[in-house]
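Recall the central idea of this unit: under ordinary conditions, the amino acid sequence of a chain determines the structure it adopts. In this exercise we apply that idea directly, starting from the sequence alone.
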Amino acid sequence: MSTPPSDSPPSEAQIILTDNERSAVTNLLQYLENLTTTNFFSGEPLSALTTLSFSDKISLQQSAALAFAEATDQAAPQVGRDTLDPLLFLLSSNDTDVQRGASAALGNLAVNVKNKVLIVKLGGLEPLIRRMQSPNIDVQCNAVGCLTNLASHGELSIHTDLM
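Accordingly, the structure predicted from this sequence is:
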């Protein structure tokens, strides 16, 4: 006897992952096992994070945001648009966990002068300012920390680049 179809939409746990998403999750788990030796900011690790970031599944976005936060906590190298675009997309999420991870990762990356300039050029200020008004204190603190990192500098030239 079969179960009659339900009128309610499936929960996120019941949604099937695409092949691309499944592959990205599998790859990300392997990369996270080698967190200290994996370069998450290029190649296949970045590709996996990007796939999860732009997924329509919040749980995959949460995983990407957390992985970005963990990876940037280990190192904050100069990155390109291919790293910052997914992070800025995640920062604009309505999900607090996604916002928390994305704002932490951006704050970590904003210690690098070249990253500061690129975050601003890619429109990162507006969503960071919005996140300062989040009802979640962790998101607020991460956004303020990132903005503080963006405002502070070790080289005088950053002033003209940010204005």
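The two ends are 68 Å apart (CA to CA).
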